[in-house]
Input
Amino acid sequence: MTAPTLEATAAPAPRTATPAAHLTFARVLRAETIKLVSLRSTWWSIGITAAMSVGISALMATASRDFPSGFPPVMAITAPMQFTMLLAGILGAISVTGEYSTGMIRSTLTAVPRRGEVLAAKAVVVGGFLAIASAIIFGAAVLATAPLLASPIDWAEPAQSIVPIAYSVMSMTVFALIGVGFGFILRSGAGAIAATVGLLFVLPIVVDLFRLFGPAWAWVADLGKHLPMSAAQVLTVPGTTDPATAVLTLAGWAAVCLGGAWAVLRVRDA
Output
């Protein structure tokens, strides 16, 4: 008779709990930055903006010898913004609508259920990117126009030099945020671009036409002073006397567009 043998069973190794990754706002910012800088359309937009800005500035600086004596030389740097503003707004719009066209927005909103964070991160990244890119572009325009201007920019007088350029950087940032807002509201690339171009470029022209219709329509032209481009023009003219109103106007447009985007984003399915 044999004694029964007990088979020792090995105890299972204790499981090590893997901590779940905490989704912070910094991680959302990092993800939005990767998405923005990895798009070819982003760099095409910045490249075209730089070429237009520096090129037009160089042409204006070359022709500045034939301008009236009161022409502020810094205007050669800030004036091209009337054209490059469209590229800033379009870049903001397509940074959003591109995700809707590819379906990536579903993955984004699944990974970040709090949609307000998605909007805030997108706005911070796009706005910050445009601010840095605009500062670099304006700096390149300053270097390119220095030997061409009839009279040099007086850097000892901030109101005639650095202040208008700083306001131009701020304006370009706001134009991009307006595009972001329209992108979330309309979700269509064509629609968002059309709305952005309409607000920044077409509407000021239409409103200005009412000056031809007599005093009865002067109130329409007065309302046009509160459009984004009109406010930016006030800020970028050296020695402006009322910068506070123009700054509040730009801030208000950015807030309205982003606020509308948040209201739509939180209730609409992706």
Notes: Residues 25-265 form one domain. Confidence is low (pLDDT under 50) at residues 5-10, 16-20. DSSP finds eleven helices and no strands in the chain.
